[in-house]
Structures are given as structure tokens and as C-alpha cells.
Amino acid sequence: MVKTAKAIAVTVQEMVTKSTTNPDELGILANQLTNDYGQLAQEAKPAALTAENEEIGSHIKRRVQELGHGCAALVTKAGALQCSPSDAYTKKELIESARKVSEKVSHVLAALQAGNRGTQACITAASAVSGIIADLDTTIMFATAGTLNQENSETFADHR
């Protein structure tokens, strides 16, 4: 989902660039933006359902919906600019809409990050436990091979 949100941000930036250099390509970019947002909306459903609590889940949904409204406005501005590519006011409106969409993407990412704090803590803990297990496996391997035996006659196998 983060990858899709970042793709939206990239497409929005390209739309700003094309608004001044090649407005004819705005339709293709608007289509790309629409597809990326559709994918993000689909990915947001399970993310909201699996969030730590209901409040975070509804926050994710709300931020994604706000992003959708912003994307719709941006696509509308792109269409208007394609109709009159030399209109400076329409270019300014498109740039302002793009700025708002970029801001809303950052809000979505922040909401996702808030929802993933518990998940990230579990990943960190699992990584630490995995490292400890690997260390234990290495120690067992050396002990079984006899390289950690004391000078007396006891072996690791006796204690195992």
C-alpha cells in the first residue's frame, strides 16, 4: 500500500511537470492516477480492518477517502487544462490541486504508519528472537563438535 501511495505522488509530480511542458500527456497521467488510486483503495480495506484498533482503521479509511476526493479534483483540472493548454489560471489550479493531493498522500502514509506500530514492534521482536536462536544454534553446533568442552571429561552431550 505504501508503494502505491508513493506511485500516486510520483504521478502527481509528473502531472505538474507536464502541465507546463506537454499538457497533451495529462490524460495518460490522469488515467494512471485513477488506476493507482483504485488499487490503493482496494489495499486500504484490509489495512483498515487489521489496524490495531477501530479508531486507527477509520482514520486510514478517512484519509484514503480524502485522497480520492483530491485525486478527482486533480483529474478534473487536468481535463480542463487539456481543453485550454495556454490558460495560466487553469495551470495554477492544477498545480494547487497537485499540492493538495501530495499533502493527502503524506496523510495516508502517516495513518498507515500509525496503524503499523504494533506490527513493526512484532517484526522487530521476531528479528531479535531469530538472532538469538541463530546464536544458540551456532553454540550448540560448536558444543556438539567438542570445541567448547572443558578440560575435564564431561561433554556437552552429557549435559544436553
Automatic annotation (TrEMBL):
Main location: cytoplasm
Protein name, entry field: TLN1 protein
Keywords from the UniProt entry: Cytoplasm
Recorded GO MF terms: actin filament binding; integrin binding
Subcellular location as annotated: Cytoplasm
Vinculin-binding site-containing domain location: 1-117
One Gene Ontology biological process: cell-cell adhesion
Database matches in InterPro entries: Alpha-catenin/vinculin-like_sf, Vinculin-bd_dom
SUPFAM superfamilies from the UniProt entry: alpha-catenin/vinculin-like (SSF47220)
Domain of life per record: Eukaryota
Gene that produces this protein: Tln1
GO CC list: cytoplasm; focal adhesion; plasma membrane
Membrane-traversing stretches: none
